[in-house]
Every structure is written in structure tokens, then in C-alpha cells.
Amino acid sequence: MSHLSWIDFFRREKMPIFFGIFVFVYIFLSGWIFQLDFSYILYISMMYFLCFVCFLLFFYSKRNREYKEMMEWIHRKDYELPLKENKDPLVILIRNLDHENTHYRNEEEKKQRALREYLTIWTHQIKSPLFALRLLLKKEEINPRDCEKELFEMEEYIQNILGYVRLESDSTDYVFQVHSLDEMVRSTIRKYSIPCIGKNNRVEFSNTERKILTDSKWFVFLLEQIVSNAIKYTENGTISFALEREKLKIEDSGIGIIPEDLPRIFDPGYTGYNGRLEKKATGLGLSLAKSIGFSLRIPLEAKSEPKVGTKIYLDLSNVLQ
Fold it and tell me: Residue 213 pairs with which residues in a beta bridge?
């Protein structure tokens, strides 16, 4: 509708209109009660009625102009101009809703962009074990251990993509209970025992006898991302777990991280110098670990020296029992 209908105008401005009618009736009845000459009563009433009609026409014109501006503003969908100074509650509400909608749309676009980037990296990286497995299967003598190694790597990539999707879901299935820290660390060590043996790495872990309030599935997934990353860059070395005060330290004696890369190792898709050099990294594991840690109230911190090793600290102060 391009203009304000009279019916809508009367509905919106019924109070001043009713008041004007009340004044008209009051004037007419007052003249009749005080027994004034009927011609006087009629004259005063008609003068007031004409003034009231002129007022309504002027008032309608003003409201109709505001209505047209409002409708043009709404249809243009530029909710900052030209009604920026308008204090109408409807204008303020529309602008606030538009800001919220823009924010949510930008966040959704950011998530979609991150997912596309993740999938691009993921599809590129999973080709390596697939290609290696295809070559192994073409050999006359198939080595089951080498095949299992490539299958394990493929399973890692698949678990990562499933974990990423679940993490980005609005209905992430967190179940917080008290769990043994030692049991969750040991289950992670068992899972990665074959890759550790394959790279001649030694694992060190002493029981902590501590319990934490967390979701065991997601906490183990967090540990797996860190351990998997440590194994990639450690050979003939050591991967150790230790509880220092209220922080779980996961340390490796691998190639370490150069100082320029250290502040960004938790950024999505960032592989750093080592990842580009070794062509092993997707830049997703530590990013996933950081996101999971945020959800579990477990901040992560990294320290590293090139050719010495890397330490990842999990701050358990919020969840230790």
C-alpha cells in the first residue's frame, strides 16, 4: 500500500479524534443547557467542526507522509538511512532486528566459508593415504602393517571432519560427568600406539589419580588432535604427559615450531613453516582442539623451541575435582 488509508489513520489516531468529537458535543450541549440562541450554537459548532476537519486533514497529511517514508525505507532495506534520527519505536525495532539479522548472516557466511576451506584442505589431504594404499595394494606382496597405517590415517581424517561438523552444530551432544583423567589419557595412548611404534617414539605417562568434570568423548578427541599433531613432527623421540599443578602438559621432542608461527598455530587452516615443509599438516587439528577446549572450559597454551620440541598445556583448573 503506497499511502495510509483513512481507516488505518482513524485506528492509529483514535484518541485525538475521539477527544475532538467530545469537544464538539460538549460545545453543542453547553449552548443547549445554557439556552443560547440555536443559531449561535450552530455557528460555533460549525466553526469548530471546520477547524477540526482542517486539523484532521493536516494531521492525516503529516501521518501519510511519514507512512510513505517508512514504507519506502522498509522496501529499500537500507535501515540506516534516511530515518536515522527517527525515534519511532517501530523504526528502532526494525533497525535492531536488521542489525541482529546482519550479524547472524555474517556469522553464518563465516561458518560456511570456514567449512568450504576445511573441506578443500580435507579432500586434498585425504588423497595422500588413498593414493598410498592404492600403490600398496598393487604390490605382489602386500604388507598388512603398511596398509593399516594408511587406513589409520584415513580414519583420522574422517573422524576430524565428523568432529568438525558436530562441533559446528547447534545441538552438540555434550554430556558432562566426572571422569578419570588417567583413563582418558591411556585410551589416547593406546589408540596411537601403532603410529608411535612406527616412528620409533617413546611415550611417557605417570598416573595422576585425578578426576575432571568433562565430556569424555570430546575431551579424548581434544587429546587425540594434540597427540596426532605431536606424532607427525616427532621421530625417534619422546611424547610425554604430566600434570603440573592444574595443567596437563603434553610434550614432544620433535622439530618444534619457529617463533613466527607460534602465535598462529591454533588458527584454522594455518600450517606454518613446518607444515608446508613436511607437507603433512592440514592446519585443522590444533584449531579443533582449541574450539573443543573453549566449549569444555579448558584453555590451551603452546610453548615451543625449534629442534627442541613443543609443549601444549591444557588448563584444567576449571574442571579438576
Answer: 178
Q: How many angstroms separate the CA atoms of 205 and 203, rounded? A: 7
State the pLDDT at residue 282: 54
Give residue 217's Cα distance to chain centre.
Answer: 21
> Would the pTM count as exceeding 0.70?
no
pLDDT digits (tens, 9 = 90+) for 33-70: 877 777 877 888 888 888 888 888 888 888 888 777 77
Query: How far is CA 100 from each of CA 78, 96, 173, 247, 264, rounded to the nearest angstrom?
Result: 14, 6, 26, 38, 30
- b/e 130-159 (16+ beta carbons within 10 angstroms → b): eebbeeeeeeeeeeeeeeebbeebbebbee
What are the grid coordinates assigned to 103, written together? 550479524
Q: Where are the alpha helices (DSSP H) in the chain?
A: 6-12, 14-33, 38-76, 89-138, 144-168, 181-191, 193-198, 216-232, 272-278, 285-295
**Residue 171 φ then ψ, to 5°:** -120, 50
Spatial contact of 312 and 228, defined as CB atoms under 8 Å apart: no
Among residues of the chain, what percentage have pLDDT more than 70?
87
The Cα 45–Cα 301 span in angstroms is 84
271 near 229, Cβ under 8 Å? no
Residue 35 is classified by DSSP as: T
Strands 202-205 and 238-244: parallel
Q: Could you tell me which residue, 27 or 93, shows the higher pLDDT?
A: 27
Cα dihedral 258, 123, 286, 294 in deg (nearest 10): 150
CB contact burial 40-72 (16+ within 10 A = b; e otherwise): ebeebeeebeeebeeebeeebeeebeebeebee
**DSSP string computed for 178-204:** EEEHHHHHHHHHHHTHHHHHHTT-EEE
Query: What phi and psi values does residue 211 have, to the nearest 5 degrees?
Result: -120, 150
Q: Are 294 and 238 in contact (CB under 8 A)?
A: no
